[in-house]
């Protein structure tokens, strides 16, 4: 029963809220907000103090921050030219008479799924505001769902965005924001200005904008073009034809369009790979399977450069998190930096290094037994021996990537490109297997041997430019203090190719007869076995009986490429040839696939069939996956019961089974009245299963539903 005081408050409340319509009314009753709020306790996440202080995390953070800065610098340089051209366009809009009677309009073709589409245009708006005499308005599609809202957004950002914090003028109300008010404010504010600012309206997501609203907005802005100097900038993610499809002729005739093309996503990704990620200056490398997985997601799913970078970052973090010893693959400046990292390793971590698969071949290759004993038993001696081993791995990646660039220079423009035209395609093959054993590689070498003398000399010049570029890059690193890489192998490559190119340059095309008499005497020798004779005959059949000096010189060059460059420096990163390569190479493709490529159906089935997998509550623990207990969520019970049915499910039988599980005590007697609460819970569970797509209503039998998944 209510007390008299509560009744009195209710009567007074009803008197104060007499209304024709029913509603919900809030009465504070003099309550005030508590001044001192209780602070929320900090959540102990993965990145707590105990994690961030660990050596592997500090190495990861330093390494990734350096890579991120390199990527950001490269993207800033690539976008710089297009932004400069756009700024020149906006500045010149009112200095020429070519835009009289038209709205100056720029279409910036960004390509789909750039690194961050909206942030690019926020940066563009900031650059336009800082480098041109313009009032900039960013008008995304969410702020222009109707013509009234679009006009109000433009006027509000133009007027309120220019008012200083010390201004005493009250902001205009929303119903006062129209283009007449903007015209009056613009005239009054800039009446004494010799050069008046332009009103630049940027629409970053042209495809998402309501076409009818956009058409009306352009026509209205054009009617004010004689008094208000509007400039439009469209952000188009697809193609220029989209503008002509959205805007009819009577609208496009009001604008004068200039097109600015930014780099496509594929080109942007190639630059990031070739200049940052696929270089020895990023010691962390992906195996062929992992790299191909991230590349396939980019090419066949979303064309998102940011998605590829985040996938690379995820693999990078997992590589360091799995084993702290992987911190040895961090970027270093010299052997002293590496030795400092090694000195922080514990005995357990040193034992983990000894357990690596590539460590055993290295130990077996040592000739001194005492050295083997010291490495296996003495931690101090092992720490001292780790420095030259890891430095060799760094130099392996240095020569590997140089040889990879040389191979790309040679084969990227061959007919049909047997090995591919992009550096990323060559990397996938070279890091996965011995590329010199592939049929595609042999086909490329065969095609290169058909090049003319002049074409081969041009190829050699391009290869020498690549080698000298790597040498110069290393010299620049030496100036900056990085003393890790050895350029002696590269200098040997350059010297060998220079000698062979000089020999080819002076070689003539005159045919030289081969002395066959001596060959016949060699083949008819009585001391030769059958297998040796067979090989000699096959070799003699392959070589022409007459060849020119130029052909012979080209053959020497191809043999030099194969033996001295590709077979020596482009072998795959395996433990037999490169000790401790596991520290630098990430190859857990199944883990990456499981966490990056979602499997929603499997996740939903797991959540409904075994909720304890996600909730981690003790009340939902199942002895077997097929068990059904009352403490499970209603949706899970209904789902597990529907798995036992055929294609058609009788709703009444389903309800009876559901009641049996929920209320096992009172389930005796089929004719017993069903509790309305249980029926309501069942109805909600069935509706949720229908929403998830597991069942649908049946048109033939109204009391049945059809099962859709098996």
Automatic annotation (TrEMBL):
Main location: nucleus
BP-aspect Gene Ontology terms: DNA replication initiation
GO molecular function: DNA replication origin binding
Signal peptide start and end residues: none
UniProt-annotated location(s): Nucleus
Record-linked Pfam families: ORC3_ins, ORC3_N, WHD_ORC
Subunit-structure text: Component of ORC, a complex composed of at least 6 subunits: ORC1, ORC2, ORC3, ORC4, ORC5 and ORC6. ORC is regulated in a cell-cycle dependent manner. It is sequentially assembled at the exit from anaphase of mitosis and disassembled as cells enter S phase.
Described function: Component of the origin recognition complex (ORC) that binds origins of replication. DNA-binding is ATP-dependent. The specific DNA sequences that define origins of replication have not been identified yet. ORC is required to assemble the pre-replication complex necessary to initiate DNA replication. Binds histone H3 and H4 trimethylation marks H3K9me3, H3K27me3 and H4K20me3.
Protein name: Origin recognition complex subunit 3
């Amino acid at each position: 029963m209510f007390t008299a005081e509560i009744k009195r408050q209710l009567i007074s409340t009803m008197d104060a809220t007499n209304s024709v319509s029913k509603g919900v009314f809030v009465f504070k009753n003099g309550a005030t907000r508590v001044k001192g709020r209780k602070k929320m306790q900090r959540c102990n996440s993965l990145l707590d103090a105990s994690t961030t202080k660990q050596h592997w995390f500090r190495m990861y953070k330093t390494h990734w921050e350096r890579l991120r800065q390199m990527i950001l610098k490269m993207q800033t340089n690539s976008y710089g030219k297009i932004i400069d051209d756009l700024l020149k366009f906006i500045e010149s809009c009112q200095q020429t008479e070519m835009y009289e009677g038209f709205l100056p309009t720029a279409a910036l073709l960004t390509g789909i799924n750039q690194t961050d589409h909206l942030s690019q245009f926020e940066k563009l708006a900031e650059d336009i505001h800082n480098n041109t005499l313009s009032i900039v308005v960013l008008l995304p599609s969410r702020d222009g769902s109707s013509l009234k809202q679009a006009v109000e957004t433009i006027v509000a950002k133009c007027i309120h965005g220019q008012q200083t914090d010390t201004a005493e003028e009250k902001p205009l109300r929303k119903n006062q924001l129209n283009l007449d008010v903007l015209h009056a404010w613009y005239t009054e504010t800039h009446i004494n200005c010799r050069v008046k600012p332009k009103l630049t309206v940027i629409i970053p997501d042209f495809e998402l904008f309501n076409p009818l609203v956009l058409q009306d907005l352009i026509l209205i802005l054009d009617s004010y073009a004689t008094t208000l100097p509007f400039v439009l900038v469209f952000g188009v993610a697809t193609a220029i034809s989209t503008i002509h499809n959205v805007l009819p002729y009577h609208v496009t005739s009001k604008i004068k369009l200039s097109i600015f093309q930014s780099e496509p996503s594929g080109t942007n990704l190639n630059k990031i790979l070739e200049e940052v990620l696929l270089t020895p200056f990023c010691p962390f490398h992906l195996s062929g399977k992992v790299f191909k997985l991230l590349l396939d997601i980019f090419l066949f799913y979303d064309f998102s450069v940011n998605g590829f970078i985040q996938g690379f970052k995820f693999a990078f973090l997992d590589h360091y998190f799995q084993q702290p010893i992987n911190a040895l693959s961090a970027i270093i400046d010299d052997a002293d930096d590496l030795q400092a990292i090694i000195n922080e390793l514990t005995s357990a971590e040193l034992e983990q290094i000894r357990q690596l698969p590539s460590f055993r071949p290295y130990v077996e290759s040592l000739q001194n037994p005492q050295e083997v004993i010291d490495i296996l038993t003495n931690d101090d001696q092992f720490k001292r021996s780790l420095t030259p081993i890891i430095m060799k791995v760094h130099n392996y990646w240095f020569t590997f990537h140089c040889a990879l660039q040389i191979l790309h220079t040679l084969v990227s423009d061959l007919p049909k490109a047997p090995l591919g035209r992009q550096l990323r395609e060559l990397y996938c093959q070279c890091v996965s297997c011995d590329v010199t054993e592939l049929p595609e590689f042999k086909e490329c070498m065969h095609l290169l041997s058909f090049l003319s003398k002049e074409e081969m000399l041009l190829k050699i010049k391009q290869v020498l430019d690549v080698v000298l570029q790597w040498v110069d890059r290393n010299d620049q690193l030496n100036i900056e203090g990085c003393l890790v890489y050895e350029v002696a192998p590269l200098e040997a490559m350059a010297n060998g190719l220079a000698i062979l190119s000089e020999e080819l340059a002076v070689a003539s095309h005159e045919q030289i007869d081969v002395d066959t008499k001596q060959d016949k005497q060699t083949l008819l020798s009585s001391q030769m076995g059958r297998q040796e004779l067979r090989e000699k005959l096959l070799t003699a059949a392959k070589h022409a009986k007459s060849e020119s000096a130029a052909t012979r010189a080209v053959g020497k060059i191809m043999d030099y490429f194969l033996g001295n460059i590709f077979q020596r420096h482009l072998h795959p990163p395996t433990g037999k040839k490169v000790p401790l390569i596991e520290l630098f190479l990430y190859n857990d493709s199944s883990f990456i696939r499981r966490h990056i490529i979602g499997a929603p159906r499997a996740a939903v089935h797991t959540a409904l069939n075994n909720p304890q997998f996600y909730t981690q509550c003790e009340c939902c623990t199942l002895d077997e996956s097929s068990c059904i207990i009352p403490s499970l969520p209603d949706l899970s019970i209904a789902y597990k019961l529907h798995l036992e049915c055929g294609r058609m499910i009788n709703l009444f039988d389903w309800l009876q089974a559901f009641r049996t599980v929920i209320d096992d005590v009172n389930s005796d007697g089929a004719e017993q009245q069903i509790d309305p609460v249980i029926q309501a819970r069942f109805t909600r569970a069935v509706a949720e299963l229908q929403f998830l797509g597991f069942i649908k209503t049946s048109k033939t039998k109204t009391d049945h539903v059809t099962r859709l998944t098996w």
